[in-house]
Design a protein that fits this description.
Blueprint: H1 12-15, H2 17-46, H3 52-63, E1 66-75, E2 81-90, E3 101-109, H4 112-116, E4 122-128, E5 131-134, H5 143-147, E6 158-171, E7 177-190, E8 196-204, E9 209-217, E10 229-240, E11 247-248, E12 250-260, E13 264-277, E14 283-293, E15 300-309, E16 312-321, E17 326-337, H6 338-342, E18 352-353, E19 355-364, H7 371-374, E20 375-388, H8 391-404, H9 409-419, E21 429-439, E22 442-452, E23 455-464, E24 470-478, H10 488-494, E25 509-517, E26 523-526
Parallel strand pairs: 4-6, 5-6
Antiparallel strand pairs: 1-2, 2-3, 3-4, 3-5, 6-7, 7-8, 8-9, 9-10, 10-12, 11-13, 12-13, 13-14, 14-15, 15-16, 16-17, 17-19, 18-20, 19-20, 20-21, 21-22, 22-23, 23-24, 24-25, 25-26
Length: about 525
Amino acid sequence: MTKPAGDTPHTLADKYPHYYRLTRFWKIVLSVLAPALAIGGSVAAIHWPYRYRQVHPLLVEVFGNRVYITHYHRIYFPHPGFEATGVTLLRDDTVRQPALGSVQTLFVEGRWTDLLLLRRRIRLVEASGLHVVLNAPGQSGGAANSAGASLAGPTTPIDQMQIHNAVLDILRGNGHRLTFAIRELDIAGLQRGRPMSYKVDLQNPVPSGHIAATGNIGPLNPKDPGSIPVSGRFTFNQVKLRDVGDLHGTLASTGHFAGPLRNIQVDAVSDTPDFAVDDGKPTEVRGSIYCRVNALNGDVFLDRVQASTGRTIVTARGQIAGSPKTAQIDFAVGHGRSEDVLRPFMHEKTPILGPVSLHGEADIGPTGPPFLQRLRVDGHFDIPAERLTNQQTAKALSAFSNRVQNGKSDGAKFSDAAAKQNPPDGGVFSSLSGPANIRNGVVSTPGILFRVAGAHVRLHGTFRFESEEAHLTGTLKMDAPVSKATTGWKSIVLRPLDPFFRRKHRQGSKIPIAVTGKPGHYKVTQDISHTR
């Protein structure tokens, strides 16, 4: 019998057909998913990778050493993983050795998709309060030994490893330690046999300064650490030069590097706006450096160093190597200014102005004694046209030059060349050249030549940096008789002595002299015996 039009449905299915179709759909879905989830849960439970007995070997792989954990608990939601506290890293060599380091909190997180698909992979390893203690490279139980041969990276891929507020202590033979405060270290793609990227922010101990670097490293090779490739860019700022001797100033640098750990090539530029030696005047010094670094022992080979200050450029090459570290540097100035070279060493105004060229070799001993006690220099300098900055001394030298000129060709030539540059204040140009050595804060010379129009002096002796005390002896040769060296009644008194100081076969005179004294009390006297 046909249902009359307008009659109401007799059942709820007739009344809500869409609702019941949706309900049947979800019943089917649940009937399929429930067993799948049960099976997946069973599989996950059976193969749960974050049990302590499975996590412990993984930590040994990550840190390359035996690991002891005080407290450990699993995490299931929102991501699978675990958290461990009181982690201690033990050395592999012997239980009698102190702990290699510790971690306050270690957090490891995975993905449910990796877990259900039975993929061995970790999304994040996060460590806070890591403290590692290493012996100096090359010593028993040093960095290479204490890390263990297993420090090749984990076989289980780790997408990202983050280390916060870490401290790395490197013990030294003298009982002290170098402490590197690592604010942040991020490593991406950590896995054995594969390269990884990194980002680090740390505080360097000596000289103190802030280092930030990004780049790539690996794959790791524990059998030959020196072959591990590394590359990246860095900044080294707020560097306190006072930490490396009697130097002063704050350096900032930036550059890039690449190569194996035993031979990293570094190219960098730097700026020190207030460089000084001891109590010298702060001077801006800009530099560039191309060098090679052995990261295994800290040796640095300087292939090209260039420093500029004012109108002067200093070039150098050499090395900083050995244990303890010593420096051997060859340096040169081609066409510089004497005031630029002297300014960082002088507390007051530089005593001379003028062009300068110099070259030499410098050795700097291990840190400990004052810088000038560690510095050894053998060099030669040439200042062809210097001018004194002390006006009183300059005028006296100019007057002396005018008196002793006797029309000789050498003096006339020097005078003519200098006259083109002589200042209107009556100063006179002179020249200074010769070899010089520095030992234990004392400058010595076997013979320097000082020339002024009409006369020249050869001197040998010493000058002490600390006390600024001079002790030089030599010979003054003048184109004029000795009586011309002074004026007034002194000239009249000296006239009878002219024959005794006359130069053989030439006009003029030859006088033995000595330069002695300290600042404010320097004396130039006749020194017939050359023993003053």
